[in-house]
Structures are given as structure tokens and as C-alpha cells.
Amino acid sequence: MSLLSVNNLAIDFTTRDGTVNAVSDISFTVDKGETLGIVGESGSGKSVSCYSLLGLIPMPPGHIKNGSALFDGIDLLRANEKTMRQIRGKRISMIFQDPMTSLNPYMRVGQQIIEPLLQHNKITQQAAKEKAIALLEEVGISDAANRYQQYPHEFSGGMRQRVVIAMALITEPDLLIADEPTTALDVTIQAQILELIHQLQQRRNIAVIFISHDLDVIKRMADRTIVMEKGFIVEQGNTQDIFYSPTQSYTKKLIASIPSCAKPENYRFTGDKDSRFLELNDISISYGNKNNAFKAVDNVSLTVKQGEILGLVGESGCGKTSLSHSIVRLVDIQQGQICLQQNPLETLQGSALKATRKDIQMIFQDPYASLNPRMTVFNTLAEPLRLHGIASDANELNSKVLSLMQDVGLEASWANKYPHEFSGGQRQRIAIARALAVEPQLIIADEPVSALDVTIQAQILSLLLELCQQRQLTMIFISHDLAVVRYIADRTAVMNQGKIVEINDTETVYQNPSDPYTKSLLAARV
Amino acid sequence: MMRFFVGRLLQSIPVIFIVITATFFLVRAAPGGPFDAEKTLSPEVIERLNERYNLDAPMYEQYFDYLGHLVQGDFGPSFRYTNRTVTEIIYAGLPITFELAIYAIMIALVIGILAGMLAAIKPNSAQDYIPMSLAMTGICMPSFLLGPLLVLVFGIWLQWLPVSGWGYSPGDKILPAITLGSTYAAYIARLTRGGMLEILSQDYIRTAKAKGLSTASIIFRHALRGGLSPVVAFLGPAIAGLLAGSFVVETIFQIPGLGRFYVQAAFNRDYTMILGTTILLSCLIVLLNMLSDLLAVWLNPRLALSNEKN
């Protein structure tokens, strides 16, 4: 008999716009010791269905319309609160996405780890502490006895997720639900955490439900996989079958959206190989005061050729964003020189700076945060046109805005809508249109597809490639995602701890990396 | 922590100095003087009085003279209460006002935190609306209305509690403390509700629930500490406000506290008395704000870290 068997589960959410079927009639089972992967894009219902098993969805607005979830003979959807409290944290544990927000910042980590143990088992504080310290060591936290006394903010992201894992496993549960446990982490850390979860599962023979939007992660972790779309299960089966011989068109589309290859031939750089469009010489950027300076960028030199797409890869905190912000003068450099077509940028002031700003535009990671929620699409796009005096009258402004919208694949009738009325992908199209409005020569795209689902990501990437070619744009494309950079960049620069450790043609970097850090990054891919 | 404390202490010196200077010149710039009365005194008498209190000296001389006495802890003689020094008057009244303020803030904290928590646990239900409506009423109702109402109900109709005095009969401290504390209870209830709602929506509350903790454990162990941080920030200014605002309550209940002197000093142009009480209150405000900052750091370990970095 299966450890968990979910039958015909259906969950509704009541919203202002009516009832939304978040989960519709899904059934699946999990056996002891196996890993079930649930993959799907945002809004597919993968998290909601698992949260409902532990009664963690807010009701209202949530409402379980139908179905049952038998766990060891108990229907989790109908059990009373007392029974559920004995199951939560004791027999079924959870790991959440962001270890920073899922740990209580006001409590020492040790107290948080032993809390489920004290809640469910008859055990003394001292015995619980010993057990927790042993477990912390097992999940790879050195100096565990001291770390036990620290607060979450004293841990790095990867270490925090190890704490969360220890917290989930301390009661030796039968089932572990991991909801995007590595999404907030860097690739090298992600690889370590995935390996850790895998090992712990083998050692303890626990069942795992692994939820992720990342197909590669699911492919690596899961024995069986469920593909969800819009609240339905599209396909389920052995992970190998799902990935290598998918039967449903949505699954095929999802798998095809993973950028897995080199840049398409027809979009490759063909311009002047010796051009020096943008030159950075010995750039250094520090934060903090003199006594306590943190060098974010350390003596970086870089040349970007006219018409190429330069990929800038690195993990969080490597300095890639600081470097890009210095080019648009959002941060000041302490040392070095930035030249755009032989004109120094770092000393520009006033109107000269404003004029140059027109030539360099940025696209940010989260279009929802970077678009003004109180401005319509039309006004968002018209503002830079007015500011730089590009359109002379209202008619020209109107036609310019509409043609921009057309270029990025937005319908003209949407011009008077506000950002919240669009999906994530459409919002990023607006942000791209805004950047293109002033006809810049250089685009700096800072993680432009990181917040998007894979199918949308693929669309935006091909849109960017097309626009760069049509408009002969030069682009610096910043990402932590190696596959995305490989798909879009002509050359790739790898940054680590404020320095560029390697820069070369993209395929050379990916196939014959010369720097040990680049090698470790590539090895960490799942 | 010690460095933070000392730093804040040093920062407060210029603040107090500015308060002293501004008050000194402002009271003298105001029309009227300490010896203006309904019955006009003869010029000779006024002259002798001015001479006695050094008011005929040039302004700057008076100022430095005052500062000189102040650093020795001498607030000078009262211009109005002959033969009493300002220090004596403060010494007699402050403990009473302070005691009243402490009772009031304790009542405010207990009622406010409980009401705010109840409201936050079930937002948008009767459990939320009833205490929050009462809180709104508490904020809107001035103490010169609430005080007499309480006296009418509990003192005169029910005859449960004495209606005035301080320490003469058992229970005579209850009504003044409730009158003074009720407005603050209402503010604290609203701050607690807001703080708790914010914290209860955090991911780590969901984590706590997923551990199998009961609602009570989640509230007390995980939510309260963070949820009370707005209350802690409010506490310093609140106590200072209680001290300064005790005048009305002291008058209603015939309490010989400091509030009465503070207000009357302004009417009487009793320069030294105004200065003395103002300096005392501003020192208390600075000190209490500092204490509430320290408490906030103690409650939130992340603040301690950012202070160490600075």
C-alpha cells in the first residue's frame, strides 16, 4: 500500500473575480522511500496541492471542494486539528523555498530545530540539543555546537537551507515535502543541497515530494514525475519516460523550452571583431566606509564589441550587478575608466550625462517591481520619448508607442492597461519596449528572464535575439543561469569575487573552461 | 551595546542644550512677566523684585548665570512660590506623577497588547471589530471627559472607588491610572494588531505551523516578539507623553503631582519653574527614547548586528 494516496483532489480559491480552480481533480500516490517530482510553471497548482495535505492553505479564500488524501489510513483533508498537529512536523515535514524567510529571525536556530522534537516527543531540552547538534553536523554544518546558538542572519543562504533541512528531519518523518528548496540558491550551492537531500533520503528511507519549476532539478531528483498545468495533471510516469519520451504536447513544449544548446547560427555576431564599443579599464567599486570597505568589483577590465551580446555570469555577490550599474552611473566607481565609443562616461555631469543615458538602457529582473504600477503602458513608454524629445507631437508619440508595442509583441489595444493587468512575460515585454523607446545603442539586461517560467523565458530570449539583430544593438546580458547565457551570448565573461576570472567565446567557455571556478560552476549544473 | 548606549548619551547632550537655550529665551520673549498681577505693584517693589531675582542684569549674563547654577544641579528659586526652590517643588511632585504614569502605562500595556492580539488572531471578525472599535473610542475620548465619567459611574453611582486624592484611601489610585492609561491602551492595541498581523503573514509562521505547533505556541513563541516591536518603539515617547500630559488627570482627581505646576508655571511666567520642568521632561523624553531603542535592539537580534557594524 502506498504511504500517501491522493484521490480526485480539487481546490478552489474565492477571489474578487470569482472562483478559481487552483487544483482540479488530481490523483497521485507516493510510496515509502521514493521521490515524487511535481513540476509545473507558476500557477499550475503544484504548491497548493501539497500545502493542502498539511492544512497549510488559508481557508478562506481556499476551499477543498473534493477528494481525499489517505496517509497511513488517515484522510488528511478531513482529519481534525488535533490529529493534524500530530502529523505536521512529526510524520510529514516540509522544506520551504526561501530559507531566510522561513526561519524565525528572532529565534536562535538551535531552538527552532529542536522545536518539533519538543513538541512531538517526550525528550529533555538537553537530549534534544545533542540530537540537533549531531544532525547539524550530518547536514554539513561545521562547528555545530556554536552555530546552534546563532541567529538565522548569521548564516549564508546555503547554510540556512541546511538548517531548515535539519529542522525538517529531526523528528524522522515518513514523508518530506520540499517546495522549491533550491530555487533561492546559487548553482554550486544548489548542487550541494540537492546531493544532501538525496543522501539523507537514502540513509533514512523516507518518501519525498519534490516540487520545482526547474525541470533539470526534477530530472535529477525524482523517481517518478508529475507534470502539472493550470491545476490539472498533464502527465505522470517514470522520470526517464517523462523526459525522454513525453506523450503530451505540454510536456514536450516544457522540455523544449529549456535552453540546452548553443546560440542559433543565424543570430551569431558577425560585426567588427576589433571594435571597441564599450571599454572598461581597471574598474573598482567598494561599498562601506574606509575602515570596513567591501570591494564589490576589483580591477575589472572589459571590452564590448559593437553588435555583440556579452554574457556576464556569476553567483550572487560576485559583483556583476555593481559592474553593470556603474556603466549606467547608478553607482560610482572608485577607480578606473569607462568609455563608450571613446567618450569617457565616469566624469559626465548634468545634460551630457542625460544625453548619454539615452544611449544606454537597462532591463531589470523583476518587471513587476521596475514598472510604475500607477502608469499605463502608454505612459510608461511615452515618458522616455517625451523626456528625450524624440517625438515632436502627439500623433508621432502615439504612432511611436504603438509601433514599439508591436515590436515586442504587445497588442495595441492594451495601451491603456496598467502593469498589474499583465502576466509576467508580458510585463517583461513592456520593460523591453521601455528600454528600446529611446533607441539606445547599448542594452544592459540584468537577469531579465530569471523571474519567468521556462516557456515564457524561451519566448523572451528569442525576442531579445531578434530585436538585437534588427536594431543592431549591443547587449550585456547578466545572469546566474548558465544555460540561458549559453543560448544568447556571443562571448561570455565569468565573474567571481569581484574579478573576471575568464572571458572568451561562449562555446569555448562552456566546452573548454580554463579557470577552476568556471569548471566548478559548469560541474554544478544539474 | 555599551558603545551604542554611550554614543546615544553623547548625542543627547546638544539636544538638551538646545532645549535649555530655546526655552530660556522664549519665555523671556513672551509678553508679560512673573510679577504681573491683577493688583499692580508699585515700580519700587518691581524694581526690588527684579534686583532680587537678578532680572535687571543683561540677558546674556542671566543666561550664563542660570547655566552656571544648572550644572551644579540648582534650578533656582521659584518666582511665584516664594521661599521654595524649583528643585524642592519638582522633588515633591515628580514621584507622584511618576507613580501615576507607571500605573497608567502598565494598564495600557496589559489591555492594549491583549486586545491587539485578540484582534490579530481573527482579523475582520467580531473578535477584531469589537476591541478595535473600543480602541478608536479610547483614542477619541479626551481624559477630561473620561475622568468625570468614571467618577460618576464608579465613584458616585456604584460607590466602589474614591473620587479624588492620592494615597489617602485604598483604591484612590485606580481611577486616575485608568483615565490616564486608556488613550495609550488604545494606541497600543492598534499597534499590536498591526505588528502581529504583519508577523503572522510571514513565511516562518507557516513553518511553525508545519512543525505541528498549536496556535498558542505560534502566537507566543514565534509571533509576539516581532509583533511587539512597533509597541516597543512607541513606549518611550508614550511614557514621556504620559508624564507631560498628566496635568488634566491630576486636576480632575486632585493629585498633588508635577503636572499642575508645569502648566501653572507657564500661566504665571514663572521663568525658573518653566525652565526646570521643561528641562526635566526633555531629559526624560531623551532617556526614555533611548531605553526604548535599547529594548528594540534586545528584541531584534538583526538590529544588534547592524549596530555592531556601525
Written account of the structure:
The complex is a heterodimer of chains A (526) and B (310). In chain A, 38% of the residues lie in helices and 25% in strands. With 526 residues, chain A is α/β, with parallel strands linked by helices. In chain A, helix 15 crosses helix 16. The two termini of chain A are 32 Å apart. Chain B is an all-alpha fold and 310 residues long. The mean pLDDT of chain B is 86. The interface between A and B is medium-sized, with 30 and 23 residues.
What is the level-2 CATH architecture name of the largest domain in chain A? 3-Layer(aba) Sandwich
Order of helices and strands of chain B: HHHHHHHHHHHHHH
- Number of DSSP-assigned strands of chain B: 0
CATH topology-level name of the largest domain in chain A:
Rossmann fold
Q: What oligomeric state do the depicted chains represent?
A: heterodimer
What is the averaged pLDDT score of chain A? 89
CATH class of the largest domain in chain A: Alpha Beta
What gyration radius of chain B follows from the Cα positions, in whole Å?
Answer: 24 Å
Counting DSSP H or I runs of 4 or more residues, the number of helices of chain A is: 21
Alpha-beta content class of chain A: alpha/beta
Distance between the termini of chain B: 11 Å
CATH level-four homologous superfamily name of the largest domain in chain A: P-loop containing nucleotide triphosphate hydrolases
Structural class category of chain B: mainly alpha
